[in-house]
Amino acid sequence: MKTYAICVIFGILALGIFTAGCISPPPAVVITTPQDNATITGSDVTLNIQISNFAITYGSDMGGMQTEQNQAGTGHVHWYIDVPVPTTPGEMAVTANGTWQMQDGTSYTWHNVLPGTHTFSVELVNKDMTPLSPPVYQTITVITVPGSPVPVNTQMVTINGSSSGTMSNGPGSGMNMTDGNSPGATPSK
């Protein structure tokens, strides 16, 4: 009888250890840049995120997403500006037009952000656009100030025989080349 009891106890312990090893950690999202309370110069704010224990799936279209079958650990990303994150179970995690965006990637840029203090949030949502249970999101505050970053190196370049353009290699902005004309304008000859 003692051998049987010991075997049962070891069996239960082994089952508990095996089962505990099979439980996946919950999904998580972290805004990696910008940092909370960062000051951004200019009107574009790019958020970069890191996702763990969650697979991004691409939906067919907005109407079709509402009827898609949810699957644990899969869905997509909603990005928000200046609104509370919608976390009501079973309700679509959307806010007023212009305050949210669905983007199935790990980076999104908000354009034409007015100067001031803004909140930016990112939420992982199910395939049918409802919040995960429990909700998974992060919110940061960012301060935007007018202007654009000063280029590190600016030099004259020749475009179509004219030396009116400039080329600059500014911090974090990559190569920017202009011909002295407005966007969409035909270069002068």
Provide a descriptive summary of the structure in words:
The protein is mostly beta strands. It folds into 2 domains: 28-145, Sandwich (Immunoglobulin-like), CATH 2.60.40.10; 151-181, no CATH class. The protein has helices at 2-22, 62-65, and strands spanning 28-33, 38-41, 45-52, 55-56, 74-81, 100-102, 107-110, 116-125, 131-145, 153-159, 162-170, 174-178.
CATH topology of the largest domain: Immunoglobulin-like
- Amino- and carboxy-terminal Cα gap: 100 Å
What are the low-pLDDT stretches, counting only 5+ consecutive residues below 50? Answer: 15-19, 152-189
Strand content: 35-45%
- The CATH architecture of the largest domain comes to Sandwich
User: Which structural category fits the helices and strands?
Assistant: mainly beta
Number of strands: 12
- Number of domain units: 2
**Computed Rg:** 25 Å
The tally of helices reads: 2
The CATH class name of the largest domain reads: Mainly Beta
SSE arrangement, N to C:
HEEEEHEEEEEEEE
Coarse shape:
globular
CATH homologous superfamily label of the largest domain: Immunoglobulins
Could you report the average pLDDT, rounded to the nearest whole number? 75
Largest sheet: 6 strands, mixed
Share in helix: 10-25%
